[in-house]
Write a structure and sequence with these properties.
Blueprint lengths: L2 E9 L2 E7 L4 E6 L5 H12 L5 H4 L5 H5 L10 E6 L4 E5 L2 E2 L9 E6 H6 L5 H12 L11 H9 L11 H19 L2 H10 L6 E6 L2 E2 L6 E2 L2 E6 L8 H4 L2 H18 L7 E6 L7 H14 L4 E6 L2 H10 L5 E10 L5 E7 L4 H6 L9 H23 L7 H8 L10 H20 L4 H17 L5 E3 L5 E3 H12 L11 H25 L1
Parallel strand pairs: 3-13, 3-14, 7-12, 12-13
Antiparallel strand pairs: 1-2, 1-4, 4-5, 5-6, 8-11, 9-10, 14-15, 16-17
């Protein structure tokens, strides 16, 4: 059982978004502001309706919290379709077929969840955080409930030493400690840390609960995470760097995920930008561990980090993964909407069918060509790894910056350049004439120029033009239907045809890079 379609209507950023997952797993890359986290939260609210007590007990209204601010009178809908023809459908605060998931193994993790695991008191983490994801923990967080109730029932002037509460508190601490060893798989956590190439192990220290004799206030026990053999001066969180804390939180979460998984035919793992603050070497190790260890799960990964997206793509089995790009365009009401592009989507060919066929509609063609342009630019961003880009304009500016050079296989070009320079230096020391060295340099840079990515082309009159700038001009101005009174105008049709040509030229550069 796996998800094969996700549909969101009026959920947070998305007015109307629908996409299919055509293989087992899915990787979605989208810049900040494209609605990536809105997809994560929509999935969370549907799949955790039976886990998160705030959702279960209607302490939060999903509609009030997540309804798209531009459509406040509309209905919020989230529909998850499965390959067995079942649907998990949310309409506002109501969800259908609550028995559909049964004892499915479903886990969600993002930066916020993982960071909270290494908070100062691990007892509070178990109660407030981990028990949401691993409902089995709820059964052992109740050992102090009876004591708290008895304290509450005592007259305010009662001396605690005259009651059996102190003894029961001691027994409860002892019971909790023994259950902690059973419910939190410490040895498995340390095994994962070893697999993640960490040179340390962790342990837990337990400080008993307390009751104030005068006020009768009960204080929960304190559980501290400690690194074996290290004196952290009882200040674990501030004593170790952020990367080490993240590795520990990852080891704890995924050790517990394996411990509490079920045999249900639905196993789902949804991860949203969960590896920030780690260098690429650590990210690669963790990504490989997850892909190998959770290969029976359907995995959905969402990220705005370009380098991490490309890393995952290099590691994954392309036959089992559907990779997508999430980007935004403006609709006819001048509002941002997200588009999920599949790798096989061809907006250019689709636009052609609305220009020169019976399905003639230049307004649709213009919208498709705008999608094509922004999709191509986002793919350039990925392939050239331009860095953390916040807006499409920044990507375009990076590509057309005359001070920046982009090469096909840049490492190979640099290595070849290095070898040739070393060769010429050696030959000069043997008395090689200066003019032959100059000729060699010319040949070297001519070869390098061939591999340079350029957006400069020549028109029929042999005049140079920049494909990127010219296409951007059409995309921003001429392809906007609102700038024309009559979209049947032949000038506007020619603009669409010109843009098709330009986009095909851009796409040919992109295809050559992919090869």
């Amino acid at each position: 059982m796996k998800i094969n379609k996700i549909s969101l209507k009026n959920f947070k950023f998305h007015h109307d978004l629908e996409f299919e997952i055509k293989t087992k797993n899915c990787l979605i890359y989208g810049e900040n502001g494209t609605g990536k986290s809105s997809i994560y939260e929509a999935l969370y609210t549907n799949f955790y309706y039976f886990k998160d007590t705030k959702i279960v007990n209607n302490q939060i209204s999903i509609r009030d919290k997540y309804l798209h601010r531009d459509y406040m009178s509309s209905e919020l809908k989230v529909n998850i379709s499965f390959d067995n023809n079942n649907d998990l459908f949310r309409l506002n605060d109501n969800i259908t077929d609550e028995n559909l998931l049964g004892d499915a193994t479903i886990y969600f993790a993002n930066e916020k969840i993982l960071s909270s695991i290494v908070e100062n008191n691990f007892y509070d983490v178990i109660n407030s955080n981990l028990s949401i994801h691993f409902s089995q923990l709820k059964s052992f967080t109740t050992v102090y409930d009876d004591i708290k109730l008895k304290i509450h029932q005592l007259p305010s002037d009662t001396e605690l030493k005259d009651t059996d509460i102190i003894k029961k508190r001691f027994e409860a601490d002892k019971e909790y400690q023994s259950k902690l060893e059973n419910f939190i798989p410490l040895s498995d956590i340390n095994d994962i840390l070893k697999k993640l190439q960490c040179d340390f192990e962790i342990e837990f220290s337990f400080n008993n609960s307390t009751i104030n004799n005068e006020t009768h206030d009960f204080s929960n026990p304190k559980i501290s995470i400690k690194i074996k053999g290290i004196d952290d001066r009882d200040d674990f969180k501030n004593h170790f760097n952020e990367a080490k804390l993240k590795l520990i939180s990852i080891a704890i979460y995924f050790a517990m995920a394996k411990k509490y998984e079920t045999e249900n035919n639905l196993k789902l793992l949804v991860l949203d930008d969960f590896l920030t603050s780690l260098d690429m070497a650590n990210r690669k190790i963790i990504a490989r561990y997850i892909l190998d260890t959770f290969n029976e799960y359907q995995i959905i990964i969402l990220t705005h980090n370009l380098q991490f997206n490309n890393l995952i793509q290099r590691l994954l089995d392309t036959e089992k993964w559907d990779t997508k790009i999430l980007f935004t365009i403006k609709d006819e009401d001048d509002k941002l909407k997200s588009i999920v592009k599949n790798k096989n989507d061809n907006y250019i060919d689709e636009a052609k069918t609305f220009i020169n066929t019976e399905a003639y509609d230049l307004r649709i063609a213009g919208n498709l060509l705008r999608k094509a342009f922004e999709s191509i630019i986002n793919e350039f961003e990925q392939l050239l790894e331009l860095g953390k880009i916040e807006s499409l304009n920044n990507i375009i500016n990076s590509l057309r910056d005359d001070n920046k050079l982009f090469y096909k296989e840049p490492n190979k070009a640099l290595l070849n350049l290095h070898k040739q320079f070393n060769k010429m230096i050696r030959e000069q020391s043997t008395g090689r004439p200066d003019n032959t060295i100059i000729d060699s340099l010319k040949e070297l840079f001519e070869n390098l120029e061939i591999n340079k990515i350029t957006f400069i082309k020549k028109d029929e009159d042999d005049k140079e033009y920049n494909i990127l700038k010219k296409t951007e001009f059409y995309k921003n101005i001429l392809l906007n239907p609102s700038s024309h009174n009559d979209i049947e105008n032949e000038i506007y049709k020619q603009e669409c045809l010109n843009t098709v040509t330009l986009l095909e030229e851009l796409n040919s550069i992109l295809v050559s890079l992919k090869k």
